[in-house]
Automatic annotation (TrEMBL):
InterPro entries the UniProt entry points to: PPR_At4g14850-like_plant (IPR046960), PPR_rpt (IPR002885), TPR-like_helical_dom_sf (IPR011990)
GO biological process: RNA modification
GO MF entry, a single one: RNA binding
Entry keyword annotation includes Repeat: yes
Keywords per UniProt: Repeat
Pfam family, one: PPR
The protein's name in its UniProt record: Pentacotripeptide-repeat region of PRORP domain-containing protein
PPR repeats: 65-99, 167-201, 268-302
Length: 365
């Protein structure tokens, strides 16, 4: 038995599907306890990414314990197969197997992604009955996140308030929810409560509250949180970089934004784009075009948000030929446009034609 267990674990670690199937066949031929090794084989198939094989084996097992149910449900959720995950969850309940904290942590995500609030509320009720809502931070966080995605922030807050032992993950889930729904004052209030309790924020917490500060034009709190980012050693984290640039940009502090960008050891394409967008929004189009050129020189591939902003900058500066050149380069790089980039390009072309008409009228007169 130990040999089979060891072989299955090695196959899962090395993602060796062929060997795992051979072990599976050998177990069946040897007459070994299939019910015992079946659970381990399912885990092996899941870790190898062969969900269909895992599901087939799962359906053949006579007795399926909660760990295996959880493995199947979470693997389907993580691969975007939310409908199948919910069907598995319902089958589990029908067979009289009660969910545990791991089940709830996975299934609430499935409910929000599939958009089935009523099912989520029923599962929430069961979590309350089983005592997981107030006693398990992971389950509470999953519920708060689910209600946030359904824009039910009042329900999310009620769940949050009932939890006995709040941690950084739970606080962050509520803060992110408030931030995403434009409730920036509430996000900062929760953040202050978190700091008062001595809970150290992580990069996601800080990124969200920085954006909220920017939305509120709250430079005082923004600079204070910037200090926390530095103190926590999170300046190199992309989320922190982008949020700092966004905050200073929305507070119209372009020089501070430039200073933050220049101090970065490395900037991802997301950071470059955030910087360029902020410059354009604050009327610094010439600087934005210069930064864009530097971005290309650094071999950073822009995305359609970058393209949209820089085309608007070129249009505002009447740099029509430059705008067309940039668009041509983007097409060669395979950067697809979106409705905003298309609108910027149309505006650019319109300005060029308008200038041409004015020139013709001037010449003729």
């Amino acid at each position: 038995m130990n040999l089979y267990t060891s072989l299955i674990a090695q196959c899962a670690q090395k993602k060796s599907i062929t060997t795992l199937k051979a072990v599976h066949t050998h177990i069946l031929k040897s007459g070994s306890l299939f019910s015992f090794f079946g659970h381990k084989l399912i885990d092996g198939y899941i870790k190898c990414g062969i969900i269909a094989e895992a599901r087939k084996l799962f359906d053949e097992l006579p007795n399926r314990h909660i760990v295996t149910w959880n493995s199947m449900i979470s693997s389907h959720v993580s691969r975007g197969k939310t409908k199948e995950a919910i069907e598995l969850y319902n089958s589990m309940l029908f067979e009289g197997v009660l969910p545990d904290a791991y089940t709830f942590s996975a299934i609430f995500k499935a409910f929000s992604e599939l958009g089935v609030l009523r099912h989520g509320q029923k599962a929430h009720g069961l979590a309350v009955v089983l005592g997981f809502e107030v006693s398990d931070g992971f389950v509470a966080t999953a519920i708060v996140d689910m209600y946030s995605k359904f824009d039910r922030m009042r329900d999310a807050r009620l769940v949050f308030d009932r939890v006995l032992d709040k941690d950084v993950v739970l606080f962050t889930a509520l803060i992110v929810g408030y931030n995403q729904h434009g409730l920036d004052s509430e996000a900062l209030e929760v953040f202050e409560e978190m700091v008062d309790k001595g809970i150290k924020p992580n990069e996601y917490t800080l990124a969200s509250v920085l954006v909220s500060c920017g939305n509120l034009g709250d430079l005082v709190n923004g600079k204070s949180i910037h200090g926390l980012v530095v103190k926590s050693g999170l300046e190199s984290v992309v989320a922190s970089q982008t949020s700092l640039l966004t905050m200073y940009s929305k507070c119209s502090k372009v020089e501070d934004s430039i200073k933050v960008f220049n101090q970065l050891a490395y900037a991802s394409h997301v950071t470059w784009t955030s910087f360029i967008v902020g410059l354009v929004q604050n009327g610094r189009e010439e600087v934005a075009v210069s930064v864009f050129r530097e971005m290309i020189r650094c071999s950073i591939i822009p995305n359609h948000f970058t393209l949209s902003s820089i085309l608007h900058a070129c249009s505002s500066l009447a740099m029509l030929e430059v705008g067309e050149q940039i668009h041509a380069v983007m097409m060669k790089l395979g950067v697809d446009g979106n409705k905003y980039a298309d609108a910027a390009l149309i505006h650019l072309i319109w300005r060029k034609r308008k200038r041409l008409v004015l020139y013709i009228i001037t010449v003729k007169s």
